[in-house]
Automatic annotation (TrEMBL):
CDD domains: HPPK. It is an enzyme of class 2 (transferase). The keyword Zinc does not apply. Keywords: ATP-binding, Folate biosynthesis, Kinase, Nucleotide-binding, Transferase. Gene3D superfamilies: 7,8-Dihydro-6-hydroxymethylpterin-pyrophosphokinase HPPK (3.30.70.560). It comes from Savagea serpentis. GO terms for molecular function: 2-amino-4-hydroxy-6-hydroxymethyldihydropteridine diphosphokinase activity; ATP binding; kinase activity. It comes from the Bacteria. The lineage of its organism: Bacteria, Bacillati, Bacillota, Bacilli, Bacillales. This is 2-amino-4-hydroxy-6-hydroxymethyldihydropteridine diphosphokinase. Pathway: Cofactor biosynthesis; tetrahydrofolate biosynthesis; 2-amino-4-hydroxy-6-hydroxymethyl-7,8-dihydropteridine diphosphate from 7,8-dihydroneopterin triphosphate: step 4/4. One of its GO terms (biological process) is folic acid biosynthetic process.
Amino acid sequence: MNRVYLSIGSNIGNRMDYLTRAIEQLQHHPAIQVKRQSSVYETEPVGLVDQANFLNIVVEIETNLEADALLQVCQLVEELLGRERVIRWGPRTVDVDILLFNEEVIRTESLIIPHERMHERLFVLVPLLELSPGLVHSATQRPLKQYAEEATGEVWIYEGEESS
Ligand SMILES: Nc1ncnc2c1ncn2[C@@H]1O[C@H](COP(=O)(O)OP(=O)(O)OP(=O)(O)O)[C@@H](O)[C@H]1O
Ligand SMILES: Nc1nc2c(c(=O)[nH]1)N=C(CO)CN2
């Protein structure tokens, strides 16, 4: 059984609803068990800054799927929830990224694990460390806590309500 951490983000429309529906889609997959979810965080956009704030969450799953098959499931969930690939780092209804896959290091044309930019993104590190404070970056062996001390970007726990 593979233990995997996924990052889910949304900054268009009813962001909370998109996160919830993405997690439901994962839960309904016969080869995926969603084990734990972090708090939901409101986060300032990183990369392309002139866009709305995101909601971000990290979920821990167990799956028998290999990493490339799991990537296809993540992309299917994005498509089901209406994501269009328009601008890199731009606004999106929902984005599902694979952060860590066991303690593996994977580099193929379509998949890089650990996710290439995860260690510099507080919107990933804060929810991930909330779930598992002792995690280590599987490529560098450096504790993720140390990366979090150096990373930038504002994140705070989301408690608000919003309508669609
Ligand atoms: N660990 C990973 N998780 C998800 N996608 C990945 C991963 N590694 C490589 N990719 C590739 O990245 C491509 C682009 O992904 P996507 O459109 O979600 O990028 P983005 O969300 O705009 O930016 P970022 O990758 O910085 O989060 C995907 O088609 C996928 O093949
Ligand atoms: N705060 C925040 N910023 C981002 C996010 C995201 O999920 N949250 N996703 C991006 C592309 O993957 C680019 N920038």
